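Format notes (please read before filing issues)

Several people have asked whether sequences and structure tokens are stored in separate files. They are not. Every record keeps both together, in the order shown below: the sequence lines, then the token lines. Line labels are part of the format and must not be stripped during preprocessing.
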Amino acid sequence: MRIDQSIETPWGISVFGAASIDAAPDVARLRVAIKETRQQAGEAFEVTRRGVNRVREVVRGHGVPDRHISTSRLNLESSYVYGSERKFVGYECTASFVIELRTLDALEAVLVDVVEAGANEVGGVEFDVRAKKELRAEARRGAVAAAREKAALYAEAAGVRLGGVVHIKDVDSEQMQSSYRSHGRSAAGEGEGDLTPGRVTVTAGVFIGFSISEDVES
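Then the structure lines:
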């Protein structure tokens, strides 16, 4: 794993520590959209607006509160097809949704129902945990412990005594998360399909600099 952050000035012992916490997801965010094309702009707006209302009603029927349903503004743009020449197709109106589910068992049923209600684009499912702040704190404590253990090993091998902490530099958690995903550890599961939650991995990393207080007595 490559992390493009480091302590620039060499002194004492500087080490990188990392830790990750795996947890079962308890939140799913479903991203869907309604996209309708009509010859008249007003008609495109109207048919999309009706679809938005149907989708919201369907989601409410699954017990999802309105505060967990995010809907974008209706977006309208001209639509064309391109061949030997550009041809006007109509006006395309789009509305996007992010639906947050706290009951993962309902995910498949909600997805089927919103598609039947008019959502004709599915952007995927993101799994998450509500206690991410607490899990991140636990991972950060683990990263510090890993860095300290590594520094102690280096000090012992080099025949010096490990001193106090003189520098701490946090590593961006999102950068680490992307690196974990690129190595096959995804927050959305591990290759079992979008609707299989798998595990959520919360990571943390830190650079810590330690002073070298004195030589180890022989």
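For reference, the curators noted about this record: The chain has a mean pLDDT of 88. The domain at 27-128 is CATH 3.30.70.2970 (Alpha-Beta Plaits).
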